[in-house]
Design goal:
The complex is a heterotetramer, with two copies of chain A and two copies of chain B.
Chain A (H helix, E strand, L loop, with lengths): L71 H26 L13 H10 L5 E3 L5 H6 L4 H9 L32 H15 L5 E6 L6 H13 L3 E7 L2 E2 L2 E2 L21 E5 L3 H16 L5 E6 L20 H4 L5 H11 L5 H24 L24 H15 L5
Parallel strand pairs in A: 1-2, 2-3, 3-7, 6-7
Antiparallel strand pairs in A: 4-5
Chain B lengths: L1 E2 L2 H15 L3 E5 L15 H5 L4 E3 L4 H13 L3 E5 L10 H8 L2 H4 L9 E6 L14 H5 L5 E3 L4 H13 L4 E6 L25 E2 L12 E4 L4 E5 L2 H13 L3 E5 L2 E3 L3 H11 L2 E8 L4 H13 L8 E5 L9 H4 L3 H12 L3
Parallel strand pairs in B: 2-3, 2-4, 4-5, 5-7, 6-7, 10-11, 10-13, 13-14
Antiparallel strand pairs in B: 1-8, 6-12, 9-11
Helix pairs in contact in B: 1-7, 3-4, 8-12, 9-10
Classes of the chains: A alpha/beta, B alpha/beta.
Bound molecules: thiamine diphosphate (TPP) (2 copies) and magnesium ion (MG) (2 copies).
């Protein structure tokens, strides 16, 4: 009898101390992928999952059928939102290093995802983000002071001190609450979208999850329900190559793109250069139109790279070459849009520097304001009584009792 | 007033609420065209249409997740889990999401889902159609846990659950669907029509969540129980001829401690009884509460009657089920002491 | 603004009182599908998931590249096992109607699945069945008395009275234990197969689930782990069109065949006429060879029809036309094999009648033997003490105590 | 003997067992190349190779299912769930499968899986990195539940768990990974090197499952606790200057009732303490057992110290955490009575 086969263990091609190797990332030529009508039957557009929609070419031109032909102000808006997100992240990271906030997660290198997708959706569409989508809030115009308040767990924190930093939500802005548990929001988004269709209303839902998170059962629940009921939802997999220390092949990305994950249900997938704002915008518009017109759900895979650490608790130099980002074939989304605008004579380096500076100031200003609202370490913060609220709609007797007990114990004045 | 069995009463509760409130909808495995494997949703599909009575894929986690999303979008979903034994695939969505959403979002988001699910044994269902997992849910803050023992309460409590803006896990003791059951499998089965709680108004009414029911008042010992065991205990009390106070807990969370306290302070003795396994079953919480609240009144140790700490075995169902003998044995134990 | 789209609710084309309608079932011509080499890369054989492998044609001939060219004795064996399964089922149903067993589930119309697949696997391969695979036991040569003992919960019941009827297992025969919870065995089979590869051993695993069960998260876990580690496993979806009252479109079968469910992971799918013994055998051999040679997992969809009620608790006339089976385009697997053998002059009606009769007698004989071992209703049965065993490897103190308590209570002699 | 913190002790347990027994393997999220987010599996990948230390997809349900299958096929898998808060997606595979397999197959199939998972708060992890879901698992018959409070026990108990042919859920109080913690977040943190249970043999040894540990013997009151709260209670006892008997439960299931009984019969008073929420927490079971076994010895009601019945809030962590004050308060309550 022949030798029994061994188990296949995916291997990352480059590890610390080695040359970065992205040869596994399959690219298409900018402009090369067709743009089918939004009502094309899913069987006829399966190839979209295997190619990669790209609009910006090496010479910073927008090419091909997916060029969304954004107006100048839209482009500026995209650039501004991405830049603001990056500046916000950098500031918060600094604040973490200074011990002012307890935790942080940045979206460095992936800003195009949240910004361009948010722009392509309508403001009444409901967004179910993951923890790396701060750009959605910024693009929908949220005052970053609100976000900072949350990270500071101060008296203005919308989570009332109950969640770790970055677990934002924004009811008025139609942005759902972030759970610490990966992927749970994805089938919830499908349920929300189903309700919209049941009620005969127009808003659609959109939701985001990471490459690693696709392995969770909830992603499958989302695909199944979205497929069976043709829910008006856009499902977005942000493939930034890493899930903490584990690279995307451990979620099954080694054999087929994540965009293909729904094909077996008849959910069309479309793979897009996630660092190309124009491509991301165009693809999202296309998917949103499919949802809004009742054609059904779409799965978008946004190919990008997590340029920073997973979180402030992580040290990526232990599992990947330090200079990977430099070698990332799809570059930096901000730089690419900027160069496109410059080459179109809609932007200049000096304008860019000015914008940067203005945003830095704005964010610094916001930080001061937020700190005035208090911080976890130094207060003022919410009263601990509030800890017993919102477990239920009204505080039940046993929690009233526990609240009293805490009061009594604190009153005793002994060090706690 | 009409005569209803528990299935009809539950059906009527959903019917009444779907009629009153267009945001109420039902979803679950086989609940639509077929009306559910126990027929609890029978007729609703025809009456309210395929957009309000949804057959779903067989994915309990997906059902809960979808229901949560619907609830966030203004609907009031009633999700059926075909057997309580199959609620575990939905456990994460219930514990980490449904129960926590209001809290973690500072009160901004919430989802008023009611989860209906048949529980308990006595129907030769073996280890995967007989479980009573209620205790596990009572430890999860943010959800309410209800288990009725008769048609009248079933309808009134289900209506309250649907109307409640907090999530409710609503357990239905399936052995009681067609009639009260006193624990003796050899007796001919009785129907609800002879039982006073089988009289059920056809229209809207509510039985409040959070209130225990003193089914029988007595002076010698307090029996704390719920679900099928209410009837078993009633018959055991009858047979013993003891003046016991029988309390149907009905809502396990939040627990009606006042009613329990008043009773045990009066009787000085207490047993708890449920079909679920004993270790860390809800009897443990009841026992802990009673000794905290009524320590100085207690004349004897509290005794817990429960299913054995094994899975529910098909062939030994009636050796497993905590029937009248076991209740009597417990009552005797607490009555020994003066 | 245009009218908002409504939710899509799958509709069964025929309901009670209507004409059966199977126009939704896509068929291929017998012999028409290519048979690629087992090591063909999965990308190149995606079409296998969308077509249907068939060997037997309308004239009962075996045609095309998938003809496994079974020898006469193999064909007879297949016929015998299918017939025995059907006769066994019929007997057990009668016994249920007579109140001798508490529950039953038949596999009427699907016998080819278990029988042909089992024949195509090796005896040391580990099988993780669903509840409708009694044919696996019969084909692996299990004495049906054992199966009956289980259904009777008598003293010889391998489950020791703890499980409902039909929840068989057979350790010596390498057939795993059935859980009441759908789909849980599927990722377990993948784990078993992974262990085989980790240990460098030859046996592979095979597992079965229904169309409805594909919606459970565990199926996705199975696909993910099988794909990532290329586990030596064969995953079989038995699409018998129904899941209790819910038809297969509610599991997502309305848009794409279940065989396609793994394509997004690079798991090849192959759809087969599940009532064609020769096709089922050939396809299973092909998949097993892929697993055994280290190429990886395969997902097989077996298209068949659940001819009987879901279980003895079910009444299908409430949700489907009574005569659906008669119209089922893929016929009856036993009849089809029989006609093939007859037309090849390897079999005759009279031989068939004789075989039938012999098997009827055998099964009747077995039943008598089994009943002699006791029954749930009338005993003798196992002692209730055994209820406290096997919760743990040894009976812990608290269960010893509970066992004593039960004894004491039973001794009191009061009616229980 | 070496000085080890809890992470090193756990690592050493796995190392020793992988060395001794080729069927032992480790799987989980980030456990391979990276060595785990808390570094508990650090170095094992290099030493035992990629076939015995498996990085997995992020799918807790899949991890458990795969582990079960591997166990059936003769391996001894140690599955890491990155945080106990994320064990719920695996709940069905644990409760319906891992715990039930031996029973439902009449003893023919079983799977000796050990599930390791960090639990508890005190690290500003907020509601989804702080939970203590142990009680839920104690109601599941067929599994054992272990939670060590120091490096010595951690290694010895983990070795016993790996060797056990029954499945074990092994909770690791993450606040104790690097040093004992007495509940006062303002004190500088201490390391295990100063603690006597930080001395850990480098070689194989076992601490038996099912035995509680009398950490401090005393005559006035029995303190039943486990995990982080062992250290909090020790300090509270110290501060109060009370002669309390402190029992580290260590194994929650099966529970060492004898040790508890002996103690409470001696002291006549009892408090229970855990970080988990109170309602239906394991304190309920402990309280119920104590009053069943020691009713006539009790001089005061048993008091339960526990986390409040809310999610674990990030900002109010130290108001939530049942610190020394709450333990002292409870001790005072039981000592009031003569
Ligand atoms: C259910 C669950 N399991 C595990 C974790 C721990 N965890 C947090 S983030 C993360 C990696 C997620 O990676 P990916 O989905 O790729 O998202 P990214 O961080 O790259 O944006 C893990 C394993 C969790 N939060 N929830
Ligand atoms: C987790 C779980 N959910 C629900 C059920 C109830 N149930 C038993 S069989 C069944 C239908 C399964 O249909 P399918 O997978 O198509 O298999 P078939 O019966 O057709 O062979 C359902 C819903 C269950 N046993 N387990
Ligand atoms: Mg990622
Ligand atoms: Mg089926």
């Amino acid at each position: 009898m022949s030798k029994a086969p061994r188990l296949h263990i995916p291997q990352r091609s480059s590890r610390p101390g080695e040359e970065p190797d992205f040869s596994y990332v399959e690219l298409s030529q900018p402009g090369a992928v067709d743009r089918p009508a939004t009502d094309t039957p899913s069987k006829e557009i399966e190839s979209l999952a295997l190619s990669m929609v790209r609009v910006l070419d090496e010479n910073h031109r927008a090419v091909g059928p997916w060029d969304p032909k954004l107006g100048d102000s839209q482009m500026q808006h995209a650039l501004t939102c991405m830049l603001k997100t990056r500046i916000f992240d950098a500031r918060m990271l600094r604040m973490h290093r200074q011990g002012k906030i307890s935790f942080y997660m940045q979206s460095l290198g992936e800003e195009a995802v949240s910004v361009a997708q948010c722009m392509a959706l309508q403001s009444e569409d409901m967004l179910f983000p993951s923890y790396r989508n701060q750009g959605l809030h910024i693009t929908r115009g949220r005052d970053v002071v609100d976000l900072m308040n949350q990270c500071l767990s101060n008296q203005m924190d919308g989570c009332k001190g109950r969640q770790m930093p970055i677990m934002y939500h924004w009811k008025e802005g139609n942005i759902f609450s972030i759970s610490g548990n990966l992927t749970t929001q994805v089938p919830q988004a499908v349920g929300w979208a189903m309700a919209s269709a049941i009620k005969g209303e127009h808003p659609i839902a959109a939701t985001w999850l990471g490459d690693g998170s696709t392995a969770e059962a909830d992603f499958y629940h989302a695909l199944t329900f979205a497929s069976v009921y043709k829910a008006p939802v856009v499902l977005n997999v942000v493939n930034n190559q890493w899930a903490i220390s584990t690279f995307q092949a451990f979620a099954g990305g080694g054999h087929r793109p994540f965009a293909a994950r729904g094909l077996g249900f008849g959910i069309p997938g479309i793979r897009v250069d996630g660092n190309d704002v124009l491509a991301v915008y165009a693809v999202t518009r296309w998917a949103a139109e499919r949802a809004r017109s009742g054609v059904g759900p779409t799965l978008i895979e946004l190919v990008t790279y997590r340029a920073g650490a997973h979180s402030t608790s992580d040290d990526p130099s232990r599992y990947r070459p330090k200079n990977e980002w430099e070698q990332w074939p799809l570059g930096d989304p901000i730089e690419r849009l900027k160069q496109h605008m410059i080459s179109n004579k809609k932007w200049t380096e000096s304008k860019h520097a000015k914008l940067s500076k203005k945003l830095e100031q704005e964010v610094a200003e916001s930080w001061k304001q937020a700190e005035n609202n208090g911080s976890l370490a130094h207060g003022p913060r919410l009263h601990e009584d509030s800890m017993f609220e919102d477990v239920y709609k009204t505080v039940p007797k046993h929690l009233q009792k526990q609240r009293e007990e805490l009061k009594r114990i604190k009153k005793r004045g002994v060090s706690s | 007033m009409a005569r209803m069995n528990m299935i009809q009463a539950l059906n009527s509760a959903m019917d009444v609420m779907m009629e009153r409130d267009a945001s109420v909808l039902v979803l679950g495995e086989d609940v639509g065209y077929f009306g559910g494997v126990f027929n609890c949703t029978g007729g609703l599909y025809e009456k309210y249409g395929k957009h309000r009575v949804l057959d779903t894929p067989i994915a309990e986690g997906g059902i809960l997740a979808a229901a949560i999303g619907m609830g966030v979008n203004g609907l009031r979903p009633i999700a059926e889990i075909q057997f309580a034994d199959y609620i575990y695939p939905a456990f994460d969505q219930i514990v980490s999401e449904l129960a926590r959403l209001r809290y973690r979002s500072g009160g901004d988001f919430w989802s008023p889902v009611t989860v209906r699910t048949p529980c308990g044994g006595g129907i030769r269902g073996g280890q995967t159609h007989s479980q009573s997992p209620e205790a596990t849910f009572t430890q999860v803050c943010g959800i309410k846990v209800v288990m009725p023992s008769n048609p009248y309460d079933a309808k009134g409590l289900l209506i309250s659950s649907i109307e409640d803006d907090d999530p409710v896990i609503f357990f239905e003791p399936k052995r009681l669907y067609n009639g009260p059951f006193d624990g003796d499998p050899d007796k001919p089965s009785v129907s609800w029509s002879a039982h006073e709680r089988g009289e059920v108004p056809e229209e809207y009414y509510a039985v409040p969540i959070g209130c225990a029911d003193v089914v029988r008042s007595g002076s010698e010992v307090t029996v704390l129980t719920y679900g099928t065991m209410v009837h078993v205990c009633a018959q055991a009390i009858e047979r013993m001829g003891i003046d016991a106070e029988l309390i149907d807990i009905r809502t396990l969370a939040p627990l009606d401690i006042e009613t329990i306290k008043t009773s045990v302070q009066k009787t000085g003795r207490c047993i708890t009884a449920h079909e679920a396994t004993r270790i860390s079953g809800f009897g443990a919480e009841l026992s802990a509460v009673v000794q905290e609240e009524c320590f100085w009144s207690l004349k004897a140790p509290i005794v817990r009657v429960a299913g054995w700490d094994t899975p529910y075995p098909h062939a030994f169902e009636w050796d497993y089920f905590p029937g009248q003998e076991r209740v009597i044995h417990a009552l005797e134990q607490v009555m020994v002491y003066e």
